[in-house]
Amino acid sequence: MMQQQAMAAGGPAAEARQCFGCNFEAVSAETACPRCGKKAFFTAGNIKTRGIILVALGLFIAGLIGAVSVVVGLIVLNAANDPSKSRKLAEDGHILLAAAGLFAVLILFGFHMIVSGGWMIAFGKRNRATVWVMWALLALILMAGGFISMWT
Ligand SMILES: [Zn+2]
Asked: Most buried among 2, 80, 110, 136, by the most CB within 10 A?
């Protein structure tokens, strides 16, 4: 630890950093993690910038998918009121359900990005639990997408 700081003398000042690969935290001037070697050893400033990007992306995704959901919902509602189309709609009910699930998880994913990014902006650190939730949501998105592509 002392040796690393001495080695970094003359370079950028040592700062509190967190590794996005293994979660290792230390005061260091290096940009590669001393534990796992990943070049994702970020300062609070780096993490806050990523948090802002994450919040912006989350807002975009939640807003976009939210708008698409409303439009698709209206089209489905219209078709349901049309007798010639409602039978086809009932036959494809499971696909509609999977699509609704996919939209819901995508919106949740967007909100999750906003929350994760907000946490990073507020604390200058990444909360590891939010990473696990993100992977779980991604798995759900893939599952819903898989069902839809299987049925259509
Ligand atoms: Zn690491």
From this structure: 110
On whether both 138 and 93 belong to a single domain, the answer is yes
103 in the same domain as 28: no
**Dist. CA 138 → ligand 1 center (Å):** 23
Mean pLDDT confidence for 144-152: 89
- Domain span at residue 99 reads 44-151
Give me ligand 1 centre to Cα 19, in Å: 5
Closest CA to 19 of 52, 53, 43: 43
Query: Ligand 1 centroid to 18 CA: how many Å?
Result: 8
Output the CA 37–ligand 1 centroid distance in Å: 6
Same domain, 27 and 64: no
Q: What pTM did the predictor assign? A: 0.82
- Closest C-alpha among 109, 114, 108, 104 to residue 69: 104
Q: Give CA–CA dist 29/16, Å, rounded.
A: 8
pLDDT digits (tens, 9 = 90+) for 120-134: 999 999 999 999 999
Same structural domain for residues 24 and 84?
no
CA atoms within 13 A on the CB side of 124: 9
